[in-house]
Amino acid sequence: MTLELGFQTRSDEAFRAAVVSGLSRKQKSIPCCWLYDARGSDLFNAITRVEDYYPTRTETEIVSQNAQDMANFCGEGAVLLEYGAGSGIKTEILIDALRAPRLYLPIDIAADELAQTTSRIAKRFPRLDVFPIVADFTRDFDLPPALPLGPRTAFFPGSTIGNLNLREAIAFLSRMHRHVGAAIIGVDLKKDVRTLLSAYDDSAGVTAAFNLNLLARINRELDGAFPLDRFIHEARWNQTESAVEMHLVSLDSRVVTLAGRDFTFFSGESIHTESSRKYDLVTFGSLAETAGWRVSQSWRDRAGQFAVLSLDAVS
Ligand code: AVI
Questions:
Q1: Phi-psi region of 241 (alpha: psi -120 to 50; beta: other; left: phi over 0)
Q2: Is the dihedral of CA 21, 25, 29, 31 positive or negative?
């Protein structure tokens, strides 16, 4: 059974509204959730395998090497919630290490991906109950009231927290605090800008294809007229925000029509499509504290590129 919670807002109309309002701003921008249509999700999966994109393999290595500690943190008979449709191998490594887990609840707005995760996990762990929940975890929602007893831990890997701005990150961590008493979260750490920029502008061009796919999506779904060969992908470091930003830069000045409206671009003008914030442990610790959490353990790779943190609710 799949539970559907809240309003499913990622409709065609919501896409049109987000694009029209985003392109009407001084700094044109489109929220990063719209990068993930079917092709965008496939391209993101491809990004996680490219050499330049270190976060996925580094976090996977951290989870593999510390799975036992993480399982101890979750406790026996755990109820594990995951925000996101199940990040493949990392989730499986953690579940495999848990002692007699009671229930796994993957939560995601993408019903198809959720169904795939559910059947994959159910096949791999036939004795584990899996209860998918279709909900937008970036918005408020309540968990079903009748969850089994047992320690409840949230798993939020992938450094997805980095795609949220400060206000959204606090809102997310506060919501998680209402749902569970403990959490394991992946956080990408600040590092040299060159490593960061090549992770978001890989030499194989997969990230560029991922970003440019948004324009193809607008052309297809909103009757848009972006000339795809006249926009380029760019990764930029924003020091003030401590974030890598993805932009789509227009090579010419032009007017682009979409959804029956005209949008003017000057040559070199960009659409900001994603920010990926990079933290240090102190800054992340105080962010978590604002939302009622204390960082209790931190597991890192040797080079200190990425951290997986355990959080305990303190208030
Ligand atoms: C999903 N998210 C954590 C990725 C990131 O690193 O911010 C999305 C991504 N964008 C470009 N490459 C990967």
A1: alpha
A2: negative
Contact 291, 53 (CB under 8 A): no
Rounded to the nearest whole angstrom, what is the distance from the C-alpha of residue 75 to the centroid of ligand 1? 30
Instruction: Report the chain's mean pLDDT, rounded to a whole number.
Output: 94
| Cβ-contact 109, 4 below 8 angstroms | no
Full-model pTM: 0.94
Pocket of ligand 1 (CB under 6 A): 47, 55, 158-160, 162-163, 200, 207, 274, 276
Residue owning the nearest CA to atom 7 of ligand 1: 276
C-alpha span between 25 and 23 (Å, rounded): 5
Atom 4, ligand 1: residue with shortest CA distance:
160
The per-residue pLDDT for range 171-202, each reduced to its tens digit, is: 999 999 999 999 999 999 999 999 999 999 99
Pairwise CA distance, residues 161 & 44, whole Å: 16
Ligand 1 center–CA 276 separation, angstroms: 7
- Phi first, then psi, for residue 211 (nearest 5°) are -70, -45
- Which structure tokens are listed for 121? 């996990």
Mean pLDDT of the 270-282 span: 98
Atom of ligand 1 nearest to the CA of 55: 6
Q: Which of 34, 35, 42, 44 to mutate to test the pocket of ligand 1 (most atoms within 8 A of CB)?
A: 44
Å from CA of 47 to ligand 1 middle? 8
Question: Can you tell me the distance from the alpha carbon of 109 to that of 120, in angstroms, rounded to the nearest whole number?
Answer: 18
| 210 CA: nearest ligand 1 atom | 11
Residue 86 pLDDT grade (very low, low, confident, very high; cuts 50, 70, 90): low
Summarize pLDDT for 39-67 with one digit per residue, the tens: 999 999 999 999 999 999 999 999 999 99
